[in-house]
């Protein structure tokens, strides 16, 4: 049985956002059952957990003696068993992988620059000075993404892939992104209206409720 790690508790603003959601969603798309290993406060710093996840973060994926960290790597691994996530055709598969890496490498860091300021440092003087340029840079990337998406349904055409799964979870981090750009808003809706997303979200929120 696949096990993924997740937090037993997070502040309200993080519920529905914690990165195990991506992995739950991929598992739901693939129709693979899983259970969760819920970490209590401090568990992520214990040596046995650090041996699985050097940075003490969630999620960790475990199955049959394999343990993996980094959501991108985990979603790609799950995609090996799900053609809806990673098409079998070589070029389409490469494109799906490309968009997944772009989400994590070219978009997420710039969204996180702004999210961290807003969530944790909003009252700091340095954050007030830094925020406008962080927002400007993020918006440049988002505008480029929006142009690349154009009037396509998904990043690489008509079919949802692992690239869209990760990209849409990245774009959900800041609600202001959808408020600013109707094209990205519609794209996020198309991705997250998939039944597998609803099941994943409900499972994450359900774990928080049960652990409370
Ligand atoms: N790049 C990692 C990021 C994982 C991550 O940031 N996890 C957060 C929860 S959303 C976490 O565990 N934060 C606690 C910490 O960093 O100490 C991935 O995609 O798996």
UniProtKB/TrEMBL annotation:
Residues 89-212 form the GST C-terminal domain. The keyword Amino-acid biosynthesis does not apply. Keywords: Transferase. It comes from the Bacteria. Residues 7-86 form the GST N-terminal domain. PROSITE patterns: GST_CTER, GST_NTER. Gene3D superfamilies: 1.20.1050.10, Glutaredoxin. One of its GO terms (molecular function) is transferase activity. The keyword Transferase applies. Belongs to the GST superfamily. This is Glutathione S-transferase. It comes from Hyphococcus luteus. The lineage of its organism: Bacteria, Pseudomonadati, Pseudomonadota, Alphaproteobacteria, Parvularculales.
């Amino acid at each position: 049985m696949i096990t993924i790690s997740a937090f037993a508790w997070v502040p309200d603003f993080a519920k529905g956002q914690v990165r195990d959601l991506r992995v739950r969603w991929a598992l739901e798309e693939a129709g693979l059952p899983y259970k969760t290993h819920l970490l209590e406060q401090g568990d992520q710093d214990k040596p046995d957990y650090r041996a699985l996840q050097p940075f003490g973060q969630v999620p960790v994926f475990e199955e049959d003696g394999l343990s993996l960290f980094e959501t991108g790597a985990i979603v790609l691994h799950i995609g090996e068993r799900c053609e809806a996530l990673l098409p079998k055709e070589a070029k389409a598969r490469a494109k799906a992988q490309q968009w997944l890496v772009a989400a994590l490498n070219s978009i997420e860091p710039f969204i996180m620059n702004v999210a961290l300021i807003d969530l944790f440092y909003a009252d700091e003087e340095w954050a007030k000075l830094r925020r406008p340029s962080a927002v400007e840079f993020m918006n440049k990337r988002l505008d480029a993404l929006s142009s690349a998406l154009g009037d396509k349904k998904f990043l690489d055409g008509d079919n949802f892939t692992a690239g869209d799964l990760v990209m849409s979870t990245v774009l959900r981090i800041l609600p202001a992104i959808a408020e600013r750009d109707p094209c990205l808003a519609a794209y996020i809706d198309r991705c997250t209206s998939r039944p597998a997303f609803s099941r994943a979200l409900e499972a994450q929120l359900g774990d928080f409720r049960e652990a409370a």
